[in-house]
Amino acid sequence: MDEAKLNDFMGKLVTDMGGAAMIANIILGEELGLYKAMADSQPVTPEALASKTGCNARLVREWLSAHAASGYMEHRDGEFRLPEEQAMALAIEDSPVYVAGGAVVVAALYHDKDKLVRAMRGDGALAWGDHHPCMFSGTERFFRPGYRGHLVAEWLPALEGVVDKLKAGAKVADVGCGHGASTVIMAQAFPKSNFVGFDYHAPSIEVANQRAKEGGVSDRARFAKYSAKDYPDNDYDLICYFDCLHDMGDPVGAAQHAYQSLKPDGSVLLVEPFANDKLDENMTPVGRLFYAASTFICTPNSLSQEVGLGLGAQAGEKRLRDVFMQAGFRQFRRATETPFNLILEARK
Ligand SMILES: C[S@@+](CC[C@H](N)C(=O)[O-])C[C@H]1O[C@@H](n2cnc3c(N)ncnc32)[C@H](O)[C@@H]1O
Fold this sequence. Notes:
Distance between the termini: 57 Å
Bound molecules: S-adenosylmethionine
Strand order of the largest sheet: 5-4-3-6-7-9-8
Number of domains: 2
Shape: globular
Number of strands: 9
Largest sheet: 7 strands, mixed
CATH class of the largest domain: Alpha Beta
CATH architecture of the largest domain: 3-Layer(aba) Sandwich
Strand content: 15-25%
CATH topology of the largest domain: Rossmann fold
Helix content: 40-55%
Order of helices and strands: HHHEEHHHHHEHEHEEHEHHHEE
């Protein structure tokens, strides 16, 4: 036994446990409006923050101290300050790096622990709709900032000829659309196009229709409950999958259905979690987060469906290419990428 190695590992575990405890504190701070009350990055005492937010001053001091010890806030002479950079991540909901939704997704893993114990001891299946309800709202809020930041500005322009079609008026399917964050963002940017979001989870479709109304696009963005293999029509210019293809039991079947549903010159936009092709190449903070989430969410969801391919959230470009080649597509390429996403294009 190497004591130095043991100490190193214990240090890592203490850091991780602190991180896990801070996730709960992030959710608390968001719900209570504590971060928003500090969004101006001015120093504040616990008492002043407590009175501004209607919270208990002693508990607010403890919460602030945890943030200072975590490096999330600065502390000087009894006053705490949320720096501008941290405010972007924790206080400003419209910022492209807002993380509160991600914290809620992590919380869902803890809520669902008993379901995972059963799945692990059984057939591995846990369907999307059987998660704690905070999984659905958390996912929407986790992904939306990235879609707002990149989808219209970078991802669609990285596809061949797609933006011109969208400007002129195209027909678009957003498959596995969840609460429709991506669909609404595209519909807001391209008023002449028509968007339809499909998802097999009925409660998500209800929320998505509500989001289209709130976003002022219900005339051109509608949502309907269909699986990825049975939605109607065969004249789409663009079929999109946002962070969902690897969750499906039969991604090859889904891609075959897309092949039949696209116009001859149509395109597929496949947005997937960033991953390299091999486990050894994914030993990164992002790989760690996605493998851990995929154990609870993506892989059991795939195993709950027919075929149960179980790609997992770290499938990587090569395996995703194989899916589309098996489905009959002839062109497949990486259009662009971010630290969190691969943006892939498939054409007939
Ligand atoms: C991680 S969520 C992503 C949701 C949404 N695209 C987003 O980016 O916010 C995965 C979604 O895929 C949907 N899904 C999984 N399997 C499906 C299938 N076979 N057919 C249609 N939707 C499916 C789930 O219901 C869920 O809404």
